[in-house]
Structures
1.
Amino acid sequence: MDKTWNNKAWFMVLPVLLLVAFSAVIPLMTVVNYSVQDTFGNNQFFWAGTEWYEEILHSDRFHAALGRNLVFSFIILAIEVPLGIVIALNMPRRGWGVPVCLVLMALPLLIPWNVVGTIWQVFGRNDIGLLGHTLESLGIKYNYVQNPLHAWFTVIIMDVWHWTSLVVLLCYAGLVSIPDAFYQAAKIDGASRWAVFRYIQLPKMNRVLLIAVLLRFMDSFMIYTEPFVVTGGGPGNSTTFLSIDLVKIAIGQFDLGPAAAMSIIYFLIILLLSWIFYTVMTNYDAER
Amino acid sequence: MDLSWMAWTVPTALFFMTIFLLLIGMAVWEYFSPGGNPRIGILRFETTRGDRLFVSLLGAAYIHLAWLGLVGPNLWWALAISVVYAVGVFRFV
């Protein structure tokens, strides 16, 4: 094959490479170094080999947090992706409604994560919060501080409220890029609403959905701030996800070695799952 | 430049040097044989040389973790399996 690349272009990539090196690669290398050592105060390190990895791999606490995180990511993907598609399909394409809907959809995304957590912490309280008080009035004993099921419900609803907009905006961007000619052709063929969605809109949204699923998966798998503010990982450990557990080990217990080993395993899980998502969805797209 | 905060050890330095040398090797390979040699292997989707290196390294990481979790801390056999796996990936994927 002939050489088609302009190698001078690599110099243009150099600043990004340096940025990534300092923000990601060097910290990651440091974490690998920490993961094979025991750390004491005053920067004293002692070789521990694979001890921390074995400890984490055999830890029931890690398995439980990983399980909770996978269930959480599955639930929010199962809710946010279909809901985002439905909302995007029903948003107006012309007129004054477009900017109104876009601004309303963008609002939750603009709120800082810890503020979202605080909003839902207050919202869910049954003495002063609208959600908690309304559920109490309906006769439902709602208490996210003491009941694990209620804590999960609150964290999931909060995430859906916060992030469905991202899926909506991405899907909407895919939908508005479809030329009118496609819809006219479908109308001439007498295509049903479902057929239009299945054979015109969904294929056109495929790429943006790939991005949406990847972003939402990675973000939900790394979720920390919102559940930490609302439930603090409780009641018990019922909403302690991997990142919350990691921070407890690293900063709470100051066990940097096990925390670093856990970070590496956590990173490898995200890398594998993201690669599987990306490969499956891009190949599905290519086959079409 | 003081890099003591990174807590370097000889084994981790060797590990990263190996990865770095692999990347340089891939760049040299690409220079002499441009295009990444895309092909469809046993996974039934197109992979380039870079994809195959990624799959090999990721697989090697999981082989080592599985060995640690299921067998024990002696990782030489895990390394041997990883090399065989990587050869297999570059040959068949």
2.
Amino acid sequence: MFWQQLVNGLTLGSTYSLVALGYTLIMGVLNIINMAHGEIFMIGAFVGLYLVTYLKVNIFVAMAGAMLASALLGCLMEMLALRPLRRRAVSHLAPLISTIGVSIFLESLALNLFGPQSQAFPTELATVQFELGPIRITLVQIIILGISFGLMFILRFWLAKTRVGKAIRTTAENIETANLLGINTNRIIFLTVALASGLGGVAGVLVGLSFNAVEPTMGLSMGLKGLAVLILGGMGNITGAMLGGLILGIAEVFTVAYGASSYRDAVAFGMIILILFIRPQGLFGKRQGGRF
Amino acid sequence: MITMKKGLIKWFSGMTIGALLLTTAGCGGGAAPAANSGSQSGEAAKIGVISYLTGGGAAYGQAIKEGLDLAKEEINAQGKVKVDLIYEDSRGDKTEAINAINKLINKDNVVGIIGPTLSGEMFAAGPIADQAGVPIMGTSTTAEGIPALGNFVFRNALPEFLAVPQAVEKAISTYNLKKVAVMYSNNNDWAVSGYKTIESTLKKNGVEIVATETFADKDTDYSAQLTKIASLKPDAVMVSSLYQEASLVLKKAREIGITVPFVGTNGFNSPELIKIAGAAADGAIVASPWFPGKQDEKVQKFIADYKAKYNNKVPDQFAAQAYDALYIYASALEQAGSTTDRQKLRDSIAAIKGFQGVTGKFAFDEKREPVMSATVLIIKDGQFTELK
Amino acid sequence: MAILLNQYYLQIAVFVMVNAILGVSIYLTLSTGQLSLGNAGFMSIGAYTCAILTVKAGLPVYLAIPLGGVAASFISIIIGFPALRLTGIYLAIATLGFGEVVRVIVLNLKITNGALGISGIPTLGTKIGKILSSFGMSKFGGFSAQQVSTLLVLVILLLVLAFLIFFCIRLNRSRVGRAFAAIKADESAAEAMGINTTYYKLLAFALGALIAGIAGGLSAHLTFFIGPKDFAYHRTVEILLYAVLGGSDLVIGPIVGALILTLLPEVLRSASNYRLMIYGALLVTMMAFRPQGLISEETVRYWKGKLGRGSKQ
């Protein structure tokens, strides 16, 4: 049972990591917590679901569509809810509150548009499974693990080596200086938000596929988990988000397996509180500077 | 500065008074004539409905609304009594339910109330109706202790402590169960109350509980709980939750190779369970007063009419019980001979005997609990069939 | 007058009062520039403590409600010590997490009765009604005992609120209030001036929790029933909205916010589908165009100036 539970924990954890990557990108560059990320993730899942159900597209096309839609949504949020706040010097709490606004707006919108019922992908992808000795793993679980680790390495490489990546890192260090250096910071911010939201959309489709349920309130619970991972791994730290997600997933599953399942939902936030008190910079964060 | 302070206090008291005036005058208008005036029988009886129409659990509230709307059309077409429904959305929130019930009683002057959807809302709203002397009937509030809230509080939902033991005991005798695992949604009052009944029934029958696992409403990942259960090899798994969670549990369980029978509470008797879980639902057992496969003229007509009105949707228990509830009100109104007298309506509801609805024969006992029988059903090849 | 005393409107007015008290609670924490998203959690501690004390231990309500507040405030000090080392968003997230942990614990404890909640809590209204009828007064010139007792409840709540406002205004003019303001303006500068920032932040945090706890206790005794769902994330967002909409410079801000946001849903009953969308849009718009809220110190000064001049002319 131990090995099977470990696999369960890793798959659950990799979905958390995927969501947390989006949080961490925005945190790293804009230094804000995007409380609406969970809802963008949920909208992504719905877009993917509707593409598959009504337009009968292939699941990978649906993922691309979801990515595009959530990226656009992210840009819209940046324009309407975040940019106006950057123009004037407001409290650092303002973006947090503003994104909370976006999140409840989107959740309610989805309830009105899609209805409260949970819906499932019509594909049989989720039922394909392999048995390796004592463990059983589904194809979707493998895809999720592959995509999250793949994305993590691509992101790291891209940020470290490419021109745009360097521009993003410079902007993350200091927006004014980046501006002086001739970087179009507005464009970089746009790009970051689009990228983070797009990632969220893909995560939405993958999570919807693997658990066979897409519904409007999935964003809130997943978003809160992603937030926990963000704190756990260290804000703005990509490796931290990746490993933090896996740690949280495994911790939750093991709480169920060897402890009391009724305390499962307290694990994430118990961990946040502990980490904030003991090591506020997160498990993998450095005390000062150096993001990504 | 001192003057400013005084000014503030003055301003605040002004604001408060203004607010009070605003609430009253703003919404007011033609409110609050005495409820008992003029009871011409030609007038439609105003019945208030509090339902979970928007928000996370709106699927249940909407089913209730559909059942009620269908019953209303039929009752008004028959013409013995006329009913008018006034809907208020409670969004599953007790504060909203309180506001809604006060509005219905004091502003709309309804003669009786149907709802709210959740037991938790009923615990907050029921006493208000009772104090005001307005009959209220829950159609889906199954938790223990609801009619005990007061003399005006009824329900036509078969409570868990009557339905669940039937299913559990039938399963124990049919499959000779020795050890079982139990799962339930621990943030849902309804599911918790069902779980408690399962637990006590199992104990009474000397069946060992090898594991008790919980999850939360809207959870999607059940692999950890089910992996643990699979390793303990129980003879059956008992699940107390609404159908959305139940169908995901079933799907996951079959996927990881748990093939034993599942016994469920009310959530299991929804046609949606079969729709979502598909073949995984086979072997699920539930006791239900509502059985769409019943060879009964009334039931089949209801299903046909419902399907015709709502896009080929098969009615679930929420719709069926709401449908019956309005018919119970209609026959009580007919007995009472008044469309506005709340006390008379209450008395004639309490006196109902031998009512034949789509959920079977129906009466209230002296504690205002429903007296009705449930059928134990098992899902076979995607159909509810009676477990014999 | 009969319309004014309609039970429906009285009940809404009662909720306005409770929410206004919650508004004061978030104002106090915000007055040191700390955003706590744990108010729903503190409210829940207060409500449960109070309900358990009255229902299970048989304590009188007037003792149980303050005790609920004290319990919330006690817990807030325990988590406050480490939490207040955190600033800004970190504190917000930690307190948000705290609220969730409280919810899960409440779901699991026997004494709180898990998801089933505590029902059959005696309400203030029924208590007052009983006292009144023991004096042989059941009718008051055409008003039912129910109306009169609700009206009396309203008066009690109004007195509590008035006291809190008075307290806050006094506080602002005191040494403590000035320390709060200094910390809000610039924490490091305040520290450099010799203000013990941890102490004052903790004080503000604990006061906020105390009042949230009292509001929780009051609400438990106004609604017959409490369950864990009443104090979830959405409740926190609602309390936050009071401060964001009304403004958190002056104590009157969140109170006005609470007033508007309690009345609005009733006026817009038919549009209840869209209520949360409207709230969301409201949060974003306020942040973008008027982050200080509807009522700020300038607003008050402006209107005072205008009214002052008007009366002179």
